UniProtKB/TrEMBL annotation:
Species, as recorded: Stigmatella ashevillensis
Top-level lineage group: Bacteria
UniProt keyword annotation of Protease present: yes
Top EC class of this enzyme: hydrolase
One protein family per Pfam: Peptidase_S9_N
Compositionally biased region (Basic and acidic residues): 9-18
Domain Peptidase S9A N-terminal span(s) in chain numbering: 11-416
UniProt keyword annotations, A-Z: Hydrolase, Protease, Serine protease
Ranges where the Peptidase S9 prolyl oligopeptidase catalytic domain occurs: 475-687
Keyword flag Hydrolase: yes
Name of the protein in question: prolyl oligopeptidase
Stored InterPro entries: AB_hydrolase_fold, Pept_S9_AS, Pept_S9A_N, Peptidase_S9_cat, Peptidase_S9A, Prolyl_oligopep/macrocyclase
This enzyme's EC code(s): 3.4.21.26
Length: 707
């Protein structure tokens, strides 16, 4: 960055001095409001010109080809899921990809020992199309799958005949199809969707989510089974119980609470289980009992049991303890409880009556569960009446793997452990605790080579999230693997607002307590310096989605603490976020700009409204996914325009638009690799890190040549 041949020449954004509004008696200028019109010729031209400047920087970084080789080595590994049993004679389905595949394939094995056959291969589709989900019917004759374009949201359900490979003409109604579960007789399926265009007022197309039932081949429009007639903000999910007697219908208030009903499939009668929106609950049916995992009256979670005859009469089976209960899965007649223990996972096995039997030893400090659209998904799978126990596992230095657990032998055996080119034995994952501004102790993971010198000169990438009950837990990525191979240090702070330590930890940074998350994150950066890992000029701050908001606010409030900021698909205008339809329900997390107290609080930290001309901000890249349906793709545009015009003491400030990408990035592995290469190139450019010209070998003494 310091050796630019010439100053970067950014295209100027038109400044509209008349654009703005008054809120709670205060005038707010919004001179770049016009950039919210992504399809206008003026906006498109400005994006293209900004993109050209950004690419001129990132694509000229020496050693970029070596970065690409390193990312590709860590990203291109064979993938394999546990089998999904469906149909007669041991027929099973699974997800699989070779190292050369750009997308996961959905595979079929007709019987035990039979060769794998390709059922759905999205690698043969156009690059912008993604296979989002695939669910076989109980008889294994059909597969319902979701196809999305330009990202992984707004999927459309299709149905394919397994024997012929022919797609059926069925097209379920509604938009943004998700969460699919078949009727036990395979006559149809339940799914979550938003209404058809024209069925709701303009602007509400992303709301009024509900559960519908589609009958295969009937030609009859899907019937609405479950939803809400009063609140448009709730979203729904559905699954069918293993016993095939019930559909579990959930209605969610974002990630804060949900209600649950059972739909008895024999007569379509509704059975209330958790009918009041006051807690987070997950339900499964075992025999004549309901198991209810809940945080009701237990901020760190407990497991309850209730008879099916009286489903609201809960009795505690596994009480709350010091760890946070994330999931409970019944397999082989036992209960496998996955806990968050200081932000990594522990698995405890219980008898059916709740008695603790033993802990399941995991390969290392890591993660079993994962976060998806339907909340936390258990990494333990299998059947209550079956014998096979499948365990998913990943860590900061181990790619997602699958193990089988033998209870009788108390043995965890590898089923699929891929080679991602990173030798885990060369690295150490430490967990440290530091104090935030108000004295609260915060945990943080630090990952580095075992031979790292603590000389205050290391390049560190700090990340966090701090919202929506999402936990920052040990997970592998090709990007972080390449950073480690480059000699860098990774730091992940478990700031308040996440779910690592239960409901109270999450609520400690909601609405008018949001500053706690920002304080926690800034304190993490300062601790890394005081502890001798790095100095501010060598510290990169990286956040994605809500984490993008986190790192942007931290940079506005404490710019001297960071050398570079990579802010990916964030929300940055905190006074207009509800106008972006997919975020209007996020007021339960952030608060409402329309509320006098909450609106004033939001204005106090909103990055777009807090750019100060006299402050020297670090060099920053703002990433916008132009097909984003989760966060406003125009917010990074407005922020860059304002910083380039007003934040002249620091920077520079780059805009990196992701074309044909949604919130999660591109739809192909090739596209994701290139996005990672751009991010690594930014760190190298901004922090003066010199990657080798080809590959990223370790130098033995823990150092690399710098430019």
């Amino acid at each position: 960055m310091k050796n630019l041949n010439r100053p970067l020449e950014f295209p100027k954004a038109r400044h509209d001095p008349e654009s703005g509004y008054t809120l709670h008696g205060r005038r707010f200028d919004d001179p770049y409001l016009w950039l919210e019109q992504l399809d206008s010729a003026e906006t498109r031209a400005w994006i293209a010109a900004q993109e050209a400047v950004t690419h001129s920087v990132l694509r000229s970084v020496p050693g970029r080809n070596g970065l690409r080789a390193s990312v590709a080595r860590a990203a291109r590994y064979a993938r394999l899921s546990p089998p999904i049993l469906a149909g007669p004679h041991g027929r099973e389905f699974l997800w699989q990809a070779d190292a050369s595949d750009d997308k996961l394939k959905f595979m079929l094995r007709r019987s035990k020992g039979a060769p794998l056959e390709t059922m759905l291969d999205p690698n043969t589709w156009p690059s912008g199309e993604a296979l989002v989900f695939a669910v076989p019917s109980p008889d294994g004759a059909l597969v319902a799958f979701g196809k999305a374009v330009g990202g992984t949201h707004a999927a459309v359900i299709h149905v394919v005949d397994v024997e012929t490979g022919r797609q059926l003409p069925d097209r379920p109604r509604g938009t943004s199809h998700t969460s699919l579960a078949w009727r036990p007789d395979a006559s149809g399926f339940f799914y979550a969707a938003c209404p058809e265009p024209g069925e709701v007022p303009t602007g509400d197309e992303a709301h009024w989510n509900a559960i519908y039932e589609h009958q295969i081949g009937s030609g009859v429009p899907a019937r609405r089974v479950f939803g809400d007639d009063h609140s448009k903000e709730y979203w729904c999910s559905v699954k069918v119980t293993e016993c095939r007697r019930f559909a579990v219908l959930s209605k969610w208030d974002y990630v804060h609470a949900n209600v649950i009903y059972l739909l008895r499939l024999s007569d379509d009668a509704f059975v209330p289980v958790a009918p009041v929106m006051r807690s987070l609950n997950q339900v499964q049916v075992i025999g004549d009992s309901l198991l209810i995992q809940t945080d009701l009256d237990a901020p760190r979670g407990r497991l309850c049991i209730a008879p099916l005859k009286a489903p609201e009469e809960w009795r505690t089976l596994i009480p709350e303890n010091a760890d946070t209960l994330q999931t409970v899965t019944g397999v082989g007649g036992r209960l496998y409880a996955v806990y968050s223990h200081a932000a990594s996972h522990r698995v405890r096995i219980h008898a059916e009556d709740g008695t603790s039997l033993r802990d399941l030893g995991l390969p290392a400090l890591g993660s079993v569960n994962r976060n998806e659209g339907e909340g936390i998904i258990s990494g333990i799978s299998g059947a209550w009446d079956g014998k096979e126990v499948w365990v998913s596992f990943t860590s900061y230095v181990q790619a997602p793997s699958v193990y089988q657990y033998d209870y009788a032998m108390d043995r965890l055996s590898p089923y699929h452990v891929p080679d991602a080119g990173l030798d885990a034995s060369e690295y150490v994952t430490d967990q440290v605790w530091y104090e935030s501004l108000d004295g609260t102790r915060i945990s943080m993971f630090i990952i580095h080579r075992k031979d790292l010198p603590r000389d205050g000169r290391q390049f560190v990438r700090l990340s966090g999230y701090g919202g929506f009950n999402v936990s920052v837990e040990p997970r592998f990525s090709a990007l972080t693997a390449a950073w480690l191979k480059l000699g860098g240090v990774l730091a992940f702070a478990n700031v308040r607002g996440g779910g690592e330590y239960g409901r109270a930890w999450h609520e400690a940074a909601c609405k008018t307590r949001r500053q706690n998350a920002f304080d926690d994150y800034i304190a993490a950066a300062r601790w890394l310096v005081s502890a001798g890992y790095t100095m501010p000029s060598k510290l990169a701050s990286r956040g994605n989605s809500n984490g993008g908001l986190l790192v942007a606010v931290a940079a506005m409030q404490a710019p001297e603490a960071f050398g570079a900021v990579y802010c990916r698909v964030p929300t940055l205008d905190m006074l207009r976020f509800p106008n972006f339809s997919y975020l209007s329900s996020a007021t339960v997390e952030y608060g409402s700009p329309e509320d006098p107290v909450e609106g004033t609080y939001l204005a106090g930290y909103s990055p777009y409204h807090n750019v100060q001309t006299e402050r020297r901000y670090p060099v920053m890249t703002f990433v916008s996914a132009l097909n984003d349906q989760t966060a406003p793709p125009h917010d990074p545009l407005k922020m860059v325009a304002k910083l380039q015009a007003g934040g002249t003491q620091g920077g520079p400030y780059l805009l990196l638009p992701l074309r044909n990408s949604g919130h999660g990035g591109g739809t192909t592995l090739t596209a994701l690799i290139e996005q990672d290469v751009d991010e690594l190139s930014f760190y190298c450019w901004a922090l003066d890190v010199a990657p080798p010209m080809s590959g990223i070998p370790h130098d033995g003494d823990g150092t690399h040549q710098r430019w």
